[in-house]
Design brief:
By secondary structure, the protein is an alpha+beta fold. It is built from four helices and nine strands; from the N terminus they run αααβββββββββα.
């Protein structure tokens, strides 16, 4: 979105301009919900925000392999220690495919908040237990359980129990969000 100021972005996603500025300068870590809101409002995939990647630059020839080695995954550590590692060698406009770790007590956003964006979410819990609230309904997703839901529904996630929740997550059809469609037009 050309011409969008820090104040303009902050107003659109209902956070302070100071928070946006601090995130930009790596002085604050956003919540999962804030990260999704920023990416959605800018019309970019979450993958473009990993480790300050510049989506306008093509990947170096050495990284054109379809294999993403675990040692070189691009990662984001968010508020509360939630960690996302991109499972693809590059950013993709249609899907965010990530390995996520929710430390004990970590959550995507506070209980009185939620996230919503375009697409469909698919998650598979590798270990631990993940709580997922979709609208007013709450679900428990345990080791080897999976879940899918429309991302436009208000939702939040949190680690349950005394061990981190580790999962593989995919958000597909990101262009279903009207804000993303407008940004690409």
């Amino acid at each position: 979105m050309a011409g969008l100021t820090v104040r303009g972005l902050a107003a659109r996603i209902n956070v302070s301009p100071s928070l946006i500025s601090q995130i930009e300068r790596s002085r604050a870590t956003p919540s999962v919900a804030t990260l999704w809101a920023v990416a959605t409002e800018l019309g970019i995939p979450i993958g473009d925000l990993f480790n300050g990647l510049d989506a306008s630059q093509p990947p170096p020839s050495s990284s054109r392999s379809p294999v993403q080695q675990h040692e070189t995954r691009k990662a984001l550590t968010l508020e509360g220690g939630v960690r996302w590692e991109r499972l693809t060698p590059g950013s993709d406009d249609l899907v965010d495919f990530v390995y996520v770790v929710y430390p004990v007590g970590a959550e995507s956003c506070p209980p009185d908040a939620s996230s919503r964006h375009g697409g469909q979410e698919y998650g598979y819990v590798l270990s631990g237990t993940l709580g997922v609230q979709i609208g007013t309904d709450e679900y428990v997703v345990r080791t080897n359980d999976s879940i899918c839901f429309e991302s436009a529904a208000p939702h939040r996630l949190w680690a349950m129990g005394d061990e981190p929740a580790v999962a593989v997550w995919a958000v597909v059809n990101l262009c279903a969000d009207d804000r993303v469609k407008r940004a690409h037009d």
